[in-house]
Amino acid sequence: MIPANLSSSFPFSRRYRALAFFLLLPFLLISCASTILPDPQEGATSLLIGGCEFHWIPRGGNKKGGLEMTLEELVSGKHYQVTTDAEGYYFISNAPPGVYMVDLVKFSLSDGVSVEHQPDVKLFIISPGKVHYLGRLIVEVDRSDLRNDFKYRAYEKFIAGDLRAEEIKKLVAGRRGNSGWLQKEISPENELEKF
Questions:
Q1: Average pLDDT over all residues of the chain
Q2: Nearest Cα residue to 102 out of 122, 128, 78
Q3: Which of 57, 86, 153, 187 could form a disulfide with 65 if both were Cys (CB 3.0 to 4.6 A apart)?
Q4: pLDDT of residue 21 exceeding 80
């Protein structure tokens, strides 16, 4: 009697085992994903705080309040619009985790000039369940250059980590409806700046 070579038959050959493994791999990953990934409904949102101001050069003065900020979450493409307060701070509650950037800053001046400024790209990593301070964007521009439909030169600087955790807590406590965020961890600098 001749022994049968089972390693080359259908269910035992190396090629068929590899094919079966790759066909079952997606199902295995999907079934394990619920235990590996955090639950998006369970505290996955964050509070974003940032600052923005325009400084007039060479004569001085500035514009802080009433700046319309647009932030974009790059993975989903979702836009968040918010207006700065009198001190130049903006707050976005319940922002999902992701990679964000300031997309556009708009405001109007008292003489009817509308300004739209698209800042240089600066990315922010937002992790879930924290209060994130994104830093302060300062744009210096000659006030006489700001006219409708006019390209102006601007000098931008981004100041990261200019507020300590205690100062950020005071900002959060001073805003109505943000008291629930006081118990969350505060991230006083962009998580990309830590590397």
A1: 79
A2: 122
A3: 86
A4: no
Domain range 46-178+185-194, CATH architecture: Sandwich (2.60)
Exposure string for 59-81, b = 16+ CB within 10 A, e = fewer: eeeebbeebbbbbbbeeeeeebe
DSSP state of 129: T
Q: How far apart are CA 59 and CA 29, in angstroms?
A: 61
All structural domains of the chain with their residue ranges = 6-36, 46-178+185-194
| CB hemisphere CA count around 95 (13 angstroms) | 32
- For residue 169, the SS3 value is helix
CA–CA dist 92, 82 (Å, integer): 7
The kind and range of the H/E element at 90 are: strand 89-95
> How many CB atoms neighbour CB 2 within 10 A?
4
Residue 18 DSSP code: H
Residue 14's pLDDT band (boundaries 50, 70, 90)? low
Tell me the pLDDT tens digit for each residue of 127-173: 899 999 999 999 998 878 877 666 778 889 988 888 999 999 999 98
